[in-house]
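Minutes, structural biology subgroup

Action item carried over from last meeting: produce the structure token record for BTB/POZ domain-containing adapter for CUL3-mediated RhoA degradation protein 2 (Anhinga rufa). EB confirmed the sequence was re-checked against the source entry. Recorded below for completeness.
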Amino acid sequence: MSGDTCLTTTLCPAAGPKPKTCSFKGGSLGNKYVRLNVGGSLYYTTVQVLTRHDTMLKAMFSGRMEVLTDKEGWILIDRCGKHFGTILNYLRDDTIALPKHRQEIKELMAEAKYYLIQGLVDMCQAALQDKKDLYEPVCSIPIITSPKEEERLIESSMKPVVKLLYNRSNNKYSYT
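Output recorded by EB:
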């Protein structure tokens, strides 16, 4: 079974017995697989991967923090599991392919900040800055103040032109 296996199931936290709190003693468990329930998404990975970098996960699995487990022994992390597979891949390889959309990069960066993974936060910030620099508007709408300016713009355009008129006589915009 691969280390990034995700069994997407939804568990109801209100049902069943209360989670148990315990200290995780990860001393000799470096290559042992642990079972993680991150917001209802289930993951298998090794303690070695989780403790490779100085992150919140290392604190959890080195015994410095207490961890919650359910009755089946799954370690509970109360976060959205959507980007946790990407987080694990970053911890394994120190690099990942970032999502294409700005919103998903922002979501991933929020998770990286929560888990205190500074390298991934830096990658996300750099990608967001690059995408900001590449931003081009779909269209531009110039405001024309004279008939001469209107004629010049229409003649110079290689694309179809849509003319919107607005009337400010009643101090409200009225589009035609």
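Discussion: Confidence is low (pLDDT under 50) at residues 1-16.
Next step: EB to file the record with the rest of the batch.
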